[in-house]
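>> received
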Amino acid sequence: MSDTFDLIVLGAGSGGLAAAKRAASYGARVAIVEGDRVGGTCVIRGCVPKKLLVYGSAYRHLLADAASYGWSIGEVRHDAATLLANVRAEVDRLNTLHIGFLEKAGVELVRGWGRFSGPNGITVTASDGNVRELRGERILIAVGGRPHRPEIPGADLGWVSDDMFELETLPQSMVVVGAGFIACEFACILRGLGVQVTQLVRGDHLLRGFDREASGAVREGMEAAGIDIRFAHSPAAITGDCAPGDFTVTTQSGEAISCGGVLLATGRRPFLQGLNLEAAGVAIEGHRIPVDADQRTNVPGIYAVGDVTDRICLTPVAVDEGRAFADTIYGNKPRRVDHSLVASAVFSQPELAGVGLTEEQAIERCGREGIRVHRARFRPMSQALPATGPRVLLKLIVERSSGRVLGAHMVGEHAAEIIQMAAVAIGMGATKADFDRTMALHPSVAEEFVTMPD
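>> returned
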């Protein structure tokens, strides 16, 4: 069976769904190929279920502080199995919704794993073994990424982030390997749900690429919550019996750490396995597919968006890349995605968010004397009565010569919500004087961004 389409999209994740629906809205005949559930990493095993686990784990802190506000609470017990089951049910609901959105948009969902048979051909193999041949005037690769396991003995005994959402219950203790946002977020989730957490970090600080002072504030909060963070520690091997969940992580220094589970949060890579890119002549650079500013690969008619390009691996970036592709090719509205100013957040506890240059990046660009750093560090009013919890950090990085705000960073409750609004101002070129002229909303944490002294 052979079918011809204007556009074939490989991967029904954030970028692929956005591109397919936008292209179809312009009248293109579109097929989207997916061998897994519809929704991709973000919906199925990433942002959405992880954020639900963050909310669930945060109740530990809320319940602990309740007495200072006059609430008398008896014995509290958490059932991790209920939380995990409810999260999976919500993911199932969203999966069904996204399938419906494709149908409404007029996009044909082709179930199975696709591989190139040529520069215009895709062979799709379904789970029942049936094979379908598709031909497309254009093909968009949007297959995303997958967790990467370190090459150490026993690595197959550890879990990756995908596995965390399939657990039926949680062990009493876990080792988390990694220093990035996935490692830090899951370390906080697990600790909030009562798990004893040891986090192994190869380097000397958390969250490489984020503002260093802000990542230090996150570390303080994590350690205050009882997470044992061990820097300059890397796993050398994992041993144990998978069934009872009795593991030992041996570090490169020879230390043996016993635990009930190991999370290997050691990075992600583009999911190129099985695509047969060589049949189409698509070039690979390292582990990624390089593209130009219009998402074009080296082969005419073949494009790529999202994590498979390994530029900025964030859901909103993939969505905008997919829509920009469709607007340009099918909507006669040519545009390119601006990757120069992308806000990012870490849903750790405390939460971190930032937009623009970090202090380190600003110094590299402008020199130490070329910038001014304005900061506020305080205990938020929400913690005034319990008198516990991490202090909030707010930072503005300002260019001395122009007064323009180069970056804004925050660690604390609702940091992502607050930085989202700051991103609008910074994207418009706001200066410190513009922030100062803005009337504060009092009492709020966010007001500190517009009341910082010169």
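>> Residues 80-105 form the longest helix (26 residues).
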